[in-house]
Write a structure and sequence with these properties.
The chain is an alpha/beta fold. Helix content is 30%, strand content 17%.
């Protein structure tokens, strides 16, 4: 739906240099939703949150293949350890709304979860690889998007729900943390190796 203007591209190139992002490298924007950005949602939609530490092996897979990683988000997020070819832009003094948009629009792809920032890439046609999807019916929107859902443990069945069971249940469209709780379902994050495989497929 959207394209960057020539002025945006030129301005973005200058910002990339100042960030320490080399010219002509490909990069991936990485985002994991955490508490703090929208306090009103922290309790009611915390089921969408994840842990940045579980994404670290996937980040290392991207850089191993020659890419750079730009961790996007906001300053309330947990800082990530210093890693080669990784910029923790969420805590960078250059962070701005305009640069947020340009980074998402120029990324090779976005590695994220069920959070609105990934949609910035979507409106520019940038593919998303999304881990920890919840609710599971949100599979994302572009033909090249891929995703894996959070694991859903059923206390009633004493096991994880299969994907077909999950898609046929009301939990496929739950919007609030309490709904999962009342249904006797515990959401669990994807394992780091599963997120690495997601990145490899993308």
């Amino acid at each position: 739906l959207l394209k960057l203007t020539g002025l945006d591209l030129l301005w973005g190139d200058e910002q990339f240099k100042s960030l320490g992002l080399p010219v002509d490298v490909w990069f991936v924007c990485v985002h994991v939703r955490e508490n703090g950005f929208s306090p009103v949602d922290d309790e009611i939609q915390c089921y969408r949150n994840g842990s940045i530490t579980k994404i670290i092996p996937a980040i290392e897979e991207i850089t191993r293949r020659g890419g750079w990683v730009i961790r996007i988000g906001d300053s309330n997020m947990e800082p990530i350890p210093k890693l080669p070819n990784v910029i923790d832009y969420a805590h960078h003094p250059m962070k701005s709304d305009r640069l947020d948009i340009i980074l998402c629009a120029r990324a090779r792809f976005i590695l994220g979860n069920t959070s609105g920032i990934a949609l910035v890439g979507t409106v520019f046609g940038v593919a998303c690889a999304l881990a920890n999807i919840a609710p599971v019916s949100v599979l994302w929107f572009l033909k090249d998007d891929i995703s894996i859902p959070k694991m859903h443990w059923s206390f009633k069945l004493n096991r994880y729900l299969r994907l077909d069971e999950l898609l046929e249940s009301d939990a496929a469209t739950f919007q609030f943390s309490k709904q999962f709780e009342y249904a006797g379902i515990r959401l669990e994050e994807n394992k780091p190796e599963d997120i690495v495989n997601l990145v490899k497929e993308m």
